[in-house]
């Protein structure tokens, strides 16, 4: 289990991490989603397209269906959503948090 990630305000939040770390994610990249937060890892709940999808699921898995995913951990709540597309052409940006003034790399992929 990962160390809980701190938001800028210092509060612990649940984070949904992407590998490879590009957004929007695409199905043909064999994207792995990992849920980071406090509490028991086995108590992770996954949501797909707004519906509870995997109760007591793993903390990470390879996405096999396009959709919008969220995860929930008992100590830190619900993560922000991550969308995985099945598009043939996508303009991607790093999934890391960006601040004004940062250099940004865009990837146009098909």
From TrEMBL:
The keyword Cell inner membrane does not apply. Keywords: Disulfide bond, Signal. One of its GO terms (molecular function) is transmembrane signaling receptor activity. The keyword Signal applies. Coiled coil: none annotated. Residues 8-71 form the Ig-like domain. One of its GO terms (biological process) is immune response. GO terms for cellular component: external side of plasma membrane. Gene3D superfamilies: Immunoglobulins. InterPro entries: Ig-like_dom, Ig-like_dom_sf, Ig-like_fold, Ig_Fc_receptor. PANTHER family: FC RECEPTOR-LIKE PROTEIN 4 (PTHR11481:SF64), IMMUNOGLOBULIN FC RECEPTOR (PTHR11481). This is FCGR2 protein. The lineage of its organism: Eukaryota, Metazoa, Chordata, Craniata, Vertebrata.
């Amino acid at each position: 289990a990962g160390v809980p990630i701190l938001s800028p305000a210092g509060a612990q939040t649940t984070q949904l991490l992407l590998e490879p770390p590009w957004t929007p994610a695409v199905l043909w990249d064999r994207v792995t989603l990992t849920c980071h937060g406090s509490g028991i890892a086995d108590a992770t709940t996954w949501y797909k397209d707004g519906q509870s999808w995997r109760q007591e699921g793993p903390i990470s898995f390879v996405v096999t269906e396009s959709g919008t995913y969220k995860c929930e951990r008992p100590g830190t709540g619900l993560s922000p959503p991550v969308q995985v597309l099945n598009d043939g052409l996508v303009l991607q940006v790093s999934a890391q948090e960006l601040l004004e003034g940062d250099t940004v790399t865009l990837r146009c992929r098909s």
